[in-house]
Design a protein that fits this description.
Chain lengths: 163, 163
């Protein structure tokens, strides 16, 4: 790997690390309360399994990203990193999809199922969830570019097998 | 690639193709109606964006799986297949996660958001969705095994780079 490529992958890993940490912080601090018919309702991320999964997945990804940053460049574990990058990108994609599906119902509701949108009552909560999703997207994009980069390195330019 | 490996990957691709087609059929035929307070309610997959996404993603995956089956073994496009396998597995994982998140709300509801479970009223619909999700899982598993196989072939046994 050339030096330019090495710096690029390092920057992408740093970006993914920062984005996942930001996603966790924004999601965990998403709280809002509303008074409806004199009853107080609270909205927080931990009430929704999909959002809890999102936080756990982002935590796993950020720990992995941090560990890879400290891996010495001559370590034999680097050969495993490509496989782990695939698994990590999948975990992130899955968590974002699940959280996005629920966030969509929260925003638009589903009249056929009788599920009302809740963003009108809890705008602060919805903004936080939206922000966390955007940060998660940035991390997933960084990992996808990294993955294509790694595959390009292993499989060769224009995807002709090197070996 | 040895002959045994080639047959294994062929079988995995056939399994993925069959599973995605079954997932589409089960999801598309998921219909149920219920009378609540003398009003007739219909449940069908197309009322939920996540389920529509699930069907579209499975259709894309099954078309891709079919095309790869007819790719001549000496074709230079095989080098692209590894990259496309990664993309396809991600698409499938994302679709299943989104559909599962919504199906979970349909089954258990979310009392904090005031979303009631609907499986009590539409048991046939819920069973179909559950079946489609299981078929989708089988397809995703087949693709994950295929992917690890391909990476193993490219990166080498014990993930030591061959080139």
């Amino acid at each position: 790997m050339t030096k330019a490529k090495r710096i690029c992958t390092l920057l992408l890993r740093l970006l993914a690390l920062a984005a996942t940490i930001i996603a966790i912080i924004i999601m965990v601090t998403s709280r809002d309360s509303a008074k409806i018919l004199n009853m107080k309702f609270n909205a927080k991320y931990s009430n929704t399994p999909a959002f809890k999964y999102f936080v756990i997945a982002n935590a796993v990804v950020s720990i992995y990203s941090l560990m890879v940053l400290f891996l010495p460049s001559k370590n034999s574990l680097w050969h495993l990193v490509l496989v782990l990058d695939v698994v990590i990108t999948m975990l992130l994609t899955s968590a974002i999809s699940a959280a996005l599906a629920i966030a969509y119902v929260g925003k638009k509701g589903n009249s056929h199922a009788g599920w009302l949108p809740i963003c009108g009552q809890f705008p602060k909560f919805c903004n936080h969830v939206g922000g966390a999703l955007i940060a998660g997207f940035v991390a997933a994009l960084a990992y996808m570019v990294l993955l294509l980069y790694s595959l390009h390195t292993v499989v060769g330019p224009f995807f002709t097998v090197k070996a």
